């Protein structure tokens, strides 16, 4: 048995004899590690959630929207309330962009849908038939509207599964029924597959009502579009496509009047917000880790004082100052890492329960971070008490009572 | 084997008062001797023993171990000598209560920097058996009798096969029967293993059993 394993073994035996004190001492570390790991788990979960949302929206999509919505990595707080609205001339212009596979206009509005006596708030989302392809939407019951419906301004709608259930009790029952929006009647052509989402302020895609944009002109008499989606050809670099779209738009609008954004950019903006949030929360957790470290330093000073005689005995038997230093350092690191492990354990339990309603998860990095941080705290805050123990004079230590 | 030359030890009690604990000690201990240091309480016996055992340093004077001046040694070198050259036995046993009997005996072996020429656990068990403690290996010190504790302490002092055993009133905390058993044991080590033993005592009867007697009073050898 070498010195290190011997010291580690006796430290652990010591903790198991003083369970209450050990737990209280490492409580600060437990809480600190617990909160760091939980925060990271939430961050990861949120990122995964948002990623999944964007994945479900389809790829290679470029959005052209009025105003400046992104500014240097974050969402702009001003400028999104611009006056410009797109019209059909913009669609025609963008359709001539080489890298565009197709271009679709978007009209959206908050509406109230009624059916018999019941009414429900919903979002109207009007476009061309390509919208289903672009956003990866598939009908679960019935069908979707076609190019023909767009040309003929058919008074039909394709609705999300949530709103279907709300209005008709189940998804199947909605097919062929009529709904009323602002006294206009529309026949339900199909009900879409669930996309998930909603909550956290995000769009609840499953409550959208889709219809041909031509049909929706009854709600949109000036025939302006809220946004334009361009799907770029899959073999074309998205940046190139964006540049081409931008050049086309600049022929008519000033640079500040519109934004051309893709998923990655939007995702980047959201992530930078989480980044700031995470930094703040991790800083708060770091404070509790430091408080935990001070707790460990305190108890280690007490331990050293209580064990002066033991230190004297070990010195009489040949322990060097470095042996005593190592012994107390190992104890404080073991205490701190034990706290880290407990914190990690509690975090696993909490995340396990959270997973019932949110995709939070603990990754390997968090485990490494938790153990790394608690070891460092054990060393940093253990070194002063350990130095005190090591520098005691052997004779004074062994003569002490 | 050990030579003390003009050794003084004094304590500065306050700004003006200096207490002289050892006053110009000159003494030589030869290999294979069984020496007793006898004197009344407070006469400086323990102080002297600690200095011989390199646990304490003299205020002035020289110490030679096997003709080598040790006053220039640094803390690591002194620790090594305490580890391998001396074995201490104390009046209060000085076992570590949270470690088992076996672990206590093994302590010196974990602090040694050279490769051990024996298997520590095997040797510790041999010593335990020899001292009639083979069933106490896993006991904790406060669960065995004083006589047994002192035998554990002697086993611990012997594990590194030191050249010198320093015993500071080893029977002071024991009843007469256990005390004489411990004394017998020390004599056995001296006779059978040619061990050099120094025993500190205030009991003339114990001193009478040794082949050399050093009397000390008020820090001076008489
Ligand atoms: N650190 C110290 N400071 C002051 N006086 C001390 C110190 N250590 C020992 N002494 C004194 O030195 C004297 C000798 O002590 P000690 O060697 O323990 O005596 P003995 O072992 O013969 O009873 C005592 O009077 C004791 O009070
Ligand atoms: Mg004494």
Automatic annotation (TrEMBL), chain A:
The keyword Heme does not apply. Residues 22-247 form the MacB-like periplasmic core domain. It holds the Pfam family MacB_PCD. Keywords: Cell membrane, Membrane, Transmembrane, Transmembrane helix. Residues 283-394 form the ABC3 transporter permease C-terminal domain. The chain crosses the membrane at residues 23-46, 280-304, 325-354, 366-384. The keyword Transmembrane helix applies. It comes from the Bacteria. GO terms for cellular component: plasma membrane. This is Multidrug ABC transporter substrate-binding protein.
Automatic annotation (TrEMBL), chain B:
The keyword Metal-binding does not apply. One of its GO terms (cellular component) is membrane protein complex. The keyword rRNA-binding does not apply. GO terms for molecular function: ATP binding; ATP hydrolysis activity; transmembrane transporter activity. Residues 2-222 form the ABC transporter domain. Keywords: ATP-binding, Lipoprotein, Nucleotide-binding, Transport. Signal peptide: none annotated. Transmembrane segments: none annotated. Belongs to the ABC transporter superfamily. This is Lipoprotein-releasing system ATP-binding protein LolD.
């Amino acid at each position: 048995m070498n010195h290190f394993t011997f010291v580690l073994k006796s430290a652990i035996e010591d903790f198991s004899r003083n369970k209450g004190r050990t737990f209280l001492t490492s409580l600060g570390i437990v809480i600190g590690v617990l909160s760091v790991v939980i925060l990271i788990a939430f961050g990861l979960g949120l990122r995964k959630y948002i990623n999944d949302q964007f994945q479900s929206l389809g790829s290679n999509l470029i959005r052209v929207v009025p105003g400046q919505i992104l500014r240097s990595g974050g969402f702009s707080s001003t400028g999104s309330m611009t006056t410009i609205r797109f019209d059909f001339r913009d669609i025609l212009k963008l359709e001539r962009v080489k890298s565009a596979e197709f271009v679709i206009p978007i009209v959206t509005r908050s509406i109230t849908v009624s059916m018999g006596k019941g009414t429900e708030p919903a979002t109207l989302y009007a476009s061309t038939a390509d919208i289903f392809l672009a956003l990866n939407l598939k009908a679960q019951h019935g069908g979707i509207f076609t190019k023909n419906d767009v040309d003929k301004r058919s008074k039909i709608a394709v609705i999300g599964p949530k709103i279907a259930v709300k209005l008709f009790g189940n998804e199947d029952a909605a097919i062929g029924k009529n709904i009323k929006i602002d006294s206009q009647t529309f026949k339900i052509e199909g009900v879409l597959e669930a996309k998930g989402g909603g909550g956290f302020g995000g769009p609840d895609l499953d409550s959208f009502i889709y219809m041909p944009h031509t049909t929706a002109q009854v709600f949109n008499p000036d025939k302006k579009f809220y946004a334009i989606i361009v799907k770029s050809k899959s073999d074309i670099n998205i940046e190139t496509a964006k540049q081409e779209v931008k050049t086309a738009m600049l022929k008519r609008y000033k640079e500040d009047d519109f934004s051309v954004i893709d998923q990655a950019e939007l995702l980047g903006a959201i992530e930078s917000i989480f980044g700031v949030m995470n930094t703040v929360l991790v800083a708060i957790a770091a404070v509790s880790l430091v408080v935990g470290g001070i707790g460990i330093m305190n108890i280690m000073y007490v331990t050293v004082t209580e064990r002066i005689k033991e230190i004297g005995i070990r010195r009489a038997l040949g322990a060097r100052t470095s042996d005593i230093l190592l012994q107390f350092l190992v104890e404080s690191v073991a205490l701190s890492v034990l706290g880290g492990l407990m914190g990690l354990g509690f975090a696993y339990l909490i995340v396990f329960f959270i997973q019932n309603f949110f995709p939070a998860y603990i990754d390997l990095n968090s485990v490494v971070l938790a153990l790394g941080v608690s070891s460092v705290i054990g060393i940093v805050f253990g070194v002063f008490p350990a130095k005190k123990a090591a520098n005691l004079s052997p004779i004074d230590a062994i003569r002490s009572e | 084997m050990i030579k003390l030359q003009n050794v003084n030890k004094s304590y500065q009690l306050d700004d003006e008062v200096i207490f002289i604990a050892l006053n110009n000690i000159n003494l030589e201990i030869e290999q294979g001797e069984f020496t007793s240091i006898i004197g009344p309480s407070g006469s400086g016996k323990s102080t002297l023993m600690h200095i011989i055992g390199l646990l304490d340093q003299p205020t002035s004077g020289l110490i030679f171990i096997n003709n080598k001046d040790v006053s220039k040694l640094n803390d690591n070198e002194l620790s090594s000598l305490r580890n391998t050259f001396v074995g201490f036995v104390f009046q209060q046993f000085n076992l570590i209560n949270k470690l088992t009997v076996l672990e206590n005996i093994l302590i010196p072996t974990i602090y040694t920097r050279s490769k051990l020429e024996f298997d520590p656990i095997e040797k510790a068990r041999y010593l335990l058996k020899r001292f009639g403690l083979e069933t106490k290996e896993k006991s904790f010190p406060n669960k065995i009798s004083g006589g047994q504790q002192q035998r554990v302490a002697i086993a611990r002092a012997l594990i590194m096969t030191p050249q010198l055993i320093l015993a500071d009133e080893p029977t002071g905390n024991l009843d007469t029967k256990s005390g004489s058993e411990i004394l017998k044991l020390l004599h056995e080590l001296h006779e059978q293993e040619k061990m050099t033993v120094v025993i500190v005592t205030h009991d003339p009867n114990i001193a009478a059993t040794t082949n050399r007697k050093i009397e000390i009073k008020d820090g001076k050898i008489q």
